[in-house]
Amino acid sequence: MRAEGTVEAFRKAESLVAQRRPLEALRALGPVLDEAPDKPSVQLLAGRAYLFSAQFQRAELAFLRVIELDPSDHYARLVLGRTLQRQGRLSEAHTQVRLATTMYPDPAYQEVLGEIRAHIARVNASE
């Protein structure tokens, strides 16, 4: 695929994810993933599409790949935490979101961290 085609496919996939059309986004992103599997932006977009389509294991792998390529990516840690939370892996989710919040102390991140802590407290109280 030519560079212009790769960029165009990536932009189309971004637009589809923004429209919450993740399966279409993954189809558009397929050639980009083949062409540039080690680009954090490509893996992050794929992870978001997987997350939005409830393909949690694939999302987790994509976000882990982003973190492997760029350990300072706070957003990848946040969405990895969300993905783990959706799988019921609250302790692991807490760790990733806490790291993301430490790296980027945004109120939205802190809200997610509070939500996970509350969920853990509810689970512990019911045991």
UniProtKB/TrEMBL annotation:
Repeat region (TPR), residues: 40-73
Xref: Pfam families: TPR_19
Keywords associated with the record: TPR repeat
InterPro entries according to UniProt: TPR-like_helical_dom_sf, TPR_rpt
Top-level taxon of the source organism: Bacteria
Keyword RNA-binding: no
The keyword Zinc-finger is assigned to this record: no
Name assigned to this protein: Tetratricopeptide repeat protein
Organism this protein belongs to: Actinopolyspora erythraea
Lineage summary: Bacteria, Bacillati, Actinomycetota, Actinomycetes, Actinopolysporales
